[in-house]
Amino acid sequence: MCPGAGTCPRRGGTDTCPRRERNNPVIPAAELRRFGLPHAYAQGIPADVVHRVMGNLGEDTQDDNPGRWTHEWSSLALAAEARGRDLEAVRYYTMARFPYVDGPDREAAQRAGVEAFDRWRKRVRGISRLDLPFDGAGFACWAAGLSQRNRLPLILVLGGITSTKEQWAPLLADAGRLGAAVVVTELPGVGENTLTYGTDSTGMLTYLVDLLGRAADASRTCVVGLSFGGHLALRHALADNRVQGLVSAGAPVRDFFIRAAHHVPLPRLMTLTLSHLTRTPVDLLPASLADWAVEEERLSRLRTTVAYAAGRDDEIAPPSDVRLLERSVPHLRLVETGSLGGRPEQAAETRLWLLSQALRMVGTASAVRRAASARARVLRARRRLAGTSAGAPA
Questions:
Q1: What percent helix, strand, coil does the chain show, rounded to 5?
Q2: Structural domain 128-341, CATH architecture
Q3: Could you please report the per-residue DSSP string of 233-268?
Q4: pLDDT tens for each residue of 308-342
Q5: Strands 243-249 and 217-226
Q6: Which of 98, 63, 21, 74 lies closest to 269, judged by CA?
Q7: Residue spans per domain, the chain
Q8: Which of 136, 245, 313, 385 counts the highest number of beta carbons within 10 A?
């Protein structure tokens, strides 16, 4: 379905799309701003750029042009490409296709982002692409450090319901310093992953770890899973003892799904995105999520060490899920802040903490780990001095 009338700079000039369907759901601009802000900061997009785009969207949330968001970010991406800044363009295209591909404009942004990333990684060298058929569909990965002769510990990275694999470019570029093979991919339905997201999606991770075991030490696997990616990784770790560590931020565990099943209202953006990824009509979504909860008894049997970053204002992982992890997970490292990514420095602090924990779990790159941990502590100290919410030590 087409996101609606608007301009598409990639197609050139002003283009009123003739294929907009009247029943095409519109994501409120207020929610695009609210959820898009931490999404932009997580990629390191400068705050002044973020606020300029948000300001250009205007304040009217009743009659929003649903194509405006994509146009604003795609225009920045095209300008970055013209200057030869492909990695910068990737970040803007990732924002343009946020939260999911619902028509030709966001599809063009998704495709252009992958192309820009491909150009960038060929200049960086050492980053390869894996196109993997699975279950009648398929998905793609970017990988660094894989070798059949020198099998390194594996760091497998999985984003959330709006996160593309291209967002992890800095981690892939630094793989040589980390002493680990790094592989990044996407949740089913996100980006280039054509699978359907569901309770059986753990099969994708099992298949992937099996495959990567040929060129990495899969017996020392750490999965970095953000948000819903963390939830999928958690369910996978319950059945796969090769996962020695799980690092997550804002992953829903149990109560989010119980509340959704009981029709507790979710943000419109989240509802539409989950409906799209699971290929479930919106009115049937609550019932379909009922079986996704991970129960306390199963968590108590988890052998994997879990490092979990929680935000007290998180709209996806409620505080009750965090308390559930505290009660039940035998090996838990928890850090809590007021917000995981509401400000650039908070997003940077979370990224550094996640990296330090992943390296600690695979037992490599101690110097890099110490530097990341120290930098996270500096940012945390600054935040405390500024009077914001305090977090636990890294």
A1: 45, 15, 35
A2: 3-Layer(aba) Sandwich (3.40)
A3: HHHHHTT-TTEEEEEEES---SHHHHHHHTT----H
A4: 999 887 888 899 999 999 999 999 999 988 766 56
A5: parallel
A6: 98
A7: 6-111, 128-341
A8: 245
